[in-house]
Design goal:
Elements: E1 3-14, E2 17-28, E3 32-36, H1 43-51, E4 58-63, E5 70-73, H2 85-95, H3 100-109, H4 125-136, E6 143-147, H5 155-172, E7 175-180, E8 192-197, E9 200-206, H6 210-214, E10 215-220, H7 224-235, E11 239-244, E12 249-254, H8 262-272, E13 280-284, H9 287-294, E14 299-300
Parallel strand pairs: 3-7, 3-8, 5-6, 6-7, 11-14
Antiparallel strand pairs: 1-2, 1-4, 8-9, 10-12, 10-13, 11-12
Helix pairs in contact: 2-3, 3-4, 4-5
């Protein structure tokens, strides 16, 4: 598959803070790619580096197309709050040398009324997010970059935004890159995923890989502390753990599903760690748990 963007060994440092650490990733052309990470993981730095807003210290960022048209919403944009959405779109289309009549079409495209006479300052968060998208579409971009576009939206607003993004991707063939920490909300929209932690790429996969990525060893145990220590000593480089103490459950996700055979490890644990066979099964876990296991936050008391 052709790449829209290739990050090759990208490093960015702020003083002593390593925001991007030898980061390499390919974003497929025509994809809806989510960059997933905790706050401070390096997501925003990566997106700003893509736009040239933040210079990198080393590495390369290459585009699949020469001089692609890119629209981005990284920070909260400042609107002309007293204008209507139609007046704002018309004004911005003139500034960007686009066809003014195109602005009304775009408002309808993202589900906003052209006839709405309210000033933008009275719009809900969901409506403002859709207005951002309409503004981003003015230049008919090859790539749209959005930083946390689902953050703060209610369930209805999230569904509306997801449906609009899917429509843009399918009808216009636009590559869409989004950062998010709302892991559950990415399923059903993302075609590709990348998990970033402390500036490093922890995992990348597409929606077809989800089943293999989310398969895990599900262990029920009354002695999780001893078992955790044993698993850590033997399988530290191969497994990442999600632990729910209150339920006495340990879930073991493969660091690299292509290289780790969970059936073999299950048998090894039965024989070497004396796990009872009926208390260790292979099940499908969740994207939330997999993310937390990879980013080191997978131990919970309840």
């Amino acid at each position: 598959m052709l790449s829209a963007i290739d990050y090759q060994n990208v490093t960015k440092q702020y003083g002593r803070i390593l925001a991007l650490d030898n980061f390499s990733l390919s974003i497929p052309q025509g994809s809806i790619s989510f960059i997933l990470g905790l706050n401070g993981a390096g997501k925003t730095t990566l997106l700003k580096s893509t736009l040239g807003h933040t210079p990198i210290n080393s590495g390369e960022i290459k585009f699949g197309k020469t001089n692609p048209s890119i629209s981005a919403v990284i920070e909260t944009p400042t609107f002309y709050e007293n204008l209507t959405a139609k007046a704002l779109m018309t004004h911005m289309s003139i500034l960007r040398r686009c066809k003014p009549e195109f602005s009304s079409t775009l408002l309808s495209y993202v589900g906003l009324s052209v006839e709405d006479k309210r000033p933008v300052r009275k719009y809900s968060l969901g409506m403002r997010q859709r207005l951002k998208l309409a503004l981003a579409l003015l230049v008919e971009p090859d790539i749209i970059i959005l930083d946390e576009p689902l953050n703060g939206l209610d369930p209805d607003g999230i569904n509306q935004m997801k449906n609009i993004l899917i429509k843009i991707n399918r009808e216009k063939g636009t590559t869409i890159i989004l950062s998010s920490h709302l892991i559950k909300e990415t399923e059903g929209i993302a075609t590709d995923y990348a998990i970033i932690h402390h500036g490093k790429l922890m995992s990348r996969f597409n929606k077809e890989d989800l089943d293999s990525k989310l398969n895990c060893l599900h262990i029920s145990t009354d002695n999780y502390s001893t078992l955790l220590e044993g698993i850590g000593n033997v399988y530290d480089s191969r497994l990442r753990l999600f632990v729910k103490k209150s339920d006495n459950i340990i879930k073991c996700y493969a660091q690299d599903a292509k290289k780790v055979n969970l059936k073999n490890i299950r048998q090894e644990m039965i024989e070497g760690l004396e796990v009872e066979a009926d208390k260790i099964t292979i099940e499908r876990g969740s994207l939330d748990e997999y993310f937390l296991a990879l980013t080191g936050g997978g131990i919970y008391d309840n």
